[in-house]
Amino acid sequence: MPTKKLPSYLSKLKEIRETLLADVEKNFKISQEEPSEPVADITDDAARAYSSQLMTNLGEQDWEKLKQVDEALEKIKDGNYGICSTCDQAIPEARLDVVPFAKFCVECLSNIENETQTPTNGLRKNDSEENL
Ligand SMILES: [Zn+2]
């Protein structure tokens, strides 16, 4: 990883972190306020339940992403940013440009995805390669 590009990844990560924190805070506030709202009718209640579910899911995703961003920032500090957590190979810059908090190289990521997801068809590997 050329140290020349590190500052740009660092500022990208910090930017993502701030955006995420703002989102998480916003979601938290909304979910805190929600119970005190009067329930108007069943339709309204169902809609609220649905959007609340949506918000919870989004929140969990945000937390997960935030965790990855924090880990990436930690790696920059430790001087091993851009190294795959599994195989110790350098993660391609093209991938870091898109996902600055990437933890794995493309190959390991597709291995992990194949392990954690039930393979539905043989096209999956080609799909993830195209997403690089
Ligand atoms: Zn790897």
Q: State the low-pLDDT regions, or none.
A: 122-129
Quick one: overall form? flat
Biggest β-sheet description:
none
Summed over residues and divided by their number, the pLDDT gives a mean of 81
Q: What portion of residues is helical?
A: 55-70%
Coarse structural class: mainly alpha
Radius of gyration: 19 Å
Distinct ligands: zinc ion
Structural topology:
Elements: H1 6-33, H2 42-78, H3 93-98, H4 106-116, H5 124-130
Helix pairs in contact: 1-2, 4-5
Bound molecules: zinc ion.
Explained architecture:
The chain has 132 residues and is mostly helical. The protein has 2 domains: 1-81, no CATH class; 84-132, no CATH class. It is 67% helix and 0% strand. The protein contains 5 helices and no strands. It has helices at residues 6-33, 42-78, 93-98, 106-116, 124-130. The two termini are 18 Å apart. Residues 122-129 have low confidence and may be disordered. Zinc ion (ZN) binds next to α4.
Q: What is shown here, in short?
A:
The protein has 5 helices and no strands. By secondary structure, the chain is mostly helical. The protein has 2 domains: 1-81, no CATH class; 84-132, no CATH class.
